[in-house]
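S.,

Sequence below, as promised.
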Amino acid sequence: MNKYNTLNLGILLRDYDEGIVSKKIQDFNCPINEEINNFFHTKAIGSVKRHQTSTFLIVDEDSQINGFYSLTHKSLEVSAVNLSKTYAKKISIYSDFDEYRNTYYISAFLIAQFGKNQNIPKSNVITGDEMMEMVLNHLRTIRDEIAGNVVYLECENKEKLILFYQRNGFVKFGERFSTTENTNYIQMLRFL
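The prediction came back faster than expected:
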């Protein structure tokens, strides 16, 4: 098994010429999700510079980008109607509840982007499960510094994606339709 390291894009931009970093990013390719490519190739650097997200590169021993993820913190609304009693009880520990709207309000970590480089031979590339474990361990470290225990993400309504996130402990709590992208996103959350 390869050894992988996580590099903070913001620190790379501080320590190296932006052109060099940008060129290295262009080697990444995730053809099954053009939105991931578009973000990483054209928006990740700007998002980091504006402090909207923190983006992290997962690199192997040969300094090849195997994947990346972007994190931020966001306020989240979760309808109690969409939760089991057990999950509602657990989520109530970390949230404010509006009885009138039957909604929980939570400050949560958002995995804003999560993508794997398909240009790397399958025998050398990190698995999605290994990547997710790295992300969750990273968030546990952050939690120990600033608090927080809820993680959420949105993914396209594709069975393979939903099953992947469920396998990694996420549960569906809602849906959101993006008119801009004409896409229905499944909203999922989990606890650290």
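The chain has a mean pLDDT of 93.

Coffee later?
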